[in-house]
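Hey all, sorry for the wall of text incoming. These are the two entities for the joint prediction.
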Amino acid sequence: MSTNPIRVLIAKPGLDGHDRGAKVIARALRDDGMEVVYTGLRQTPEMIAEAALHEDVQAVGVSILSGAHNALVPRVMTQLRDKDISHVPVFVGGIIPDEDVAALLELGVAAVFGPGTRTGEIVAAVRCAVERAVAGASG
Amino acid sequence: MSLAKKIISGDQRALARALTFIEDGDAASERILAELHAHGGKAHLVGVTGAPGVGKSTLVNALAQSVRARGDTVGVLAVDPTSPFSSGAVLGDRIRMRDLAGDKGIYIRSMATRGALGGLSHATAAAADVLDAAGFDCVLIETVGVGQAGVEIAANVHTTIVLMAPGSGDDVQAIKAGILEIADILVVNKADLSGAEQTRAYLRSTLTMGQTARAVAGHPHSEQADTPSPGWEVPLLMTVASVGEGVDELLQSLVAHHDYLASSGELDNRQRERMRAIVELRLRNRLYTRLVQQVSQQRFDALLQAIVARETDPYSAVASLMEDID
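and here's what came out:
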């Protein structure tokens, strides 16, 4: 088992200007020993995929509070595919209505976290997905 | 195709993978670095350092755009601190570098210090070599926010930019040893804030003092004391990096410094010292690892226990361990 820190990108696509949630998650992942690249507000899907590529992250978390997830998440997924890094698990957090969750999972999103999710649950899900991906790559 | 060949051909995904291998100390990293070495030595390696919050990332954002405007490509290594408690890190330098997104001629990598204390991570020098071999004309290395120590950057680059902000203290702070001594270019950022002029005046008087001292002691970087060195007068510049003010002048100073290094022979000196540091560090690590393998964990723990119990002392214990190693 590798003891190298897991590298994660936390990104905020779209126009909403509230990143407290993203920062709380970044902090929780850090406190679990991960290296979290946080890129700040108002990122385009292209910027997110480019950062994921440059930083060689093992997971991407996108935080969306604006309700634009059905427009933004597919574009993020497409951009990751275009950059040949679609194997990186993507997590979505924010205000996501229950009825939209299935469609996001259908797109290949690893998990969707709504308001009230405990940070420990998110940390465990990221760690689990990354370790599964590492095991898959070496097995 | 090997990872190194992909990197040389401009494959950014291969580059990103290689940097991870290097950071993680993966067995593949030495082979990659060995293969890349012959392709390096062309980039201008530039360090940007200064206290937390003086505007290092913002300046890198502005400077990288100026370098690009000349047609040169830019690789950025941005170092942020690792938490000593969780060993995790939040790497936030990209937040200030959003203007650099979407340009294939720019590659930005965030690095955590992972326990290193000199303002860089142990992998930063090798990462710079990889960006150099990948063909980036200019490699900008941003250190963690450092104070009066943290001068490791200077040994790893050709040109060191030290960034200050107004209110950085008086002239006694400025003559203390450390970060000011490593500056090839000194910049007062946030020059639109009150107190900028005073900070400039303090630094100016410190610089003239230093130049007098150097004239007496000989140039600090010159190995052959009898070779006359034309010397380099450290420029003191004012910038407002957030709006790009003064950044073109900074770029001119960077180019002038590189020209100075090349024409004075100092570039060769710095390259050699950089390589010496890389070789010595690797050698030290390998020797240490090999020797430590000859000492059993039980023996080490027993000695440690005895030291804690004050039955022996650290100095006799090390002497006794050295006898085991022969």
